[in-house]
Amino acid sequence: MKKILVSECLYGGRAVRYDGGMKEEKDPRFLKWKEEGRLIPVCPEVFGGLPIPRPDSQRIGDRVVSRNGRDVTEEYMKGARMTLEIAKAEGVSAAILKENSPSCGVEMIHDGNFSGVKVPGRGVTTELLLDAGFTVFSEKQLDQVEEYLAQLERDV
Question: What's the pLDDT tens digit per position in 96-109?
């Protein structure tokens, strides 16, 4: 059975988001993968030592800055590195990460101005996983995840 790394806010069960909430995924395929024990939940921001709740942060170039102006790049990078180590140790086949996040955004992130505007971009954890050769999807790409898993399991 192929394992999938997943943003813990999507996995559910524990509130880890900056606002103290979750974005628990309810798609039947996701719930099936969860029930099968395929999903390995991770929260890079919590791994990096950031509290729950915490000021929201956005990516500005190579840095991550909180709404109150604090540079939290090191915390985000520490969490990204820990997430990468877990992905390697668990032998995951792919990751499903939370779109728009400065850690986990796959295709879109906030523009860095705290204006609510989203722009094409990737979170720091997503970049690290991709650079290490992992396949990364967002929660909006579950059709592609399903196809990817089916292909991997046919190739076994």
Answer: 999 999 999 999 99
Closest CA to 32 of 154, 148, 156, 142: 142
Q: Which helix (H) or strand (E) holds 60?
A: strand 57-60
Q: Report helix, strand or coil for 22.
A: coil
Phi, psi at residue 74, to the nearest 5°? -65, -40
Beta strands 4-7 and 39-42 are parallel
- C-alpha to C-alpha distance for 123 and 110, rounded to whole angstroms: 10
118-120 and 108-110 beta bridge pairing: antiparallel
> 76: closest CA among 124, 15, 122, 110?
124
pLDDT, tens only, 4-45: 999 999 999 999 999 998 899 999 999 999 999 999 999 999
Distance, CA of 27 to CA of 39 (rounded, Å): 14
Which tokens in the block code for residue 69?
Answer: 């102006």
| Structural Rg of the chain based on CA atoms | 15
Strand order in the sheet with 39-42: 39-42, 4-7, 94-97, 136-138
- Whose CA is closest to 17, among 116, 124, 102? 102
The Cα 79–Cα 5 span in angstroms is 14
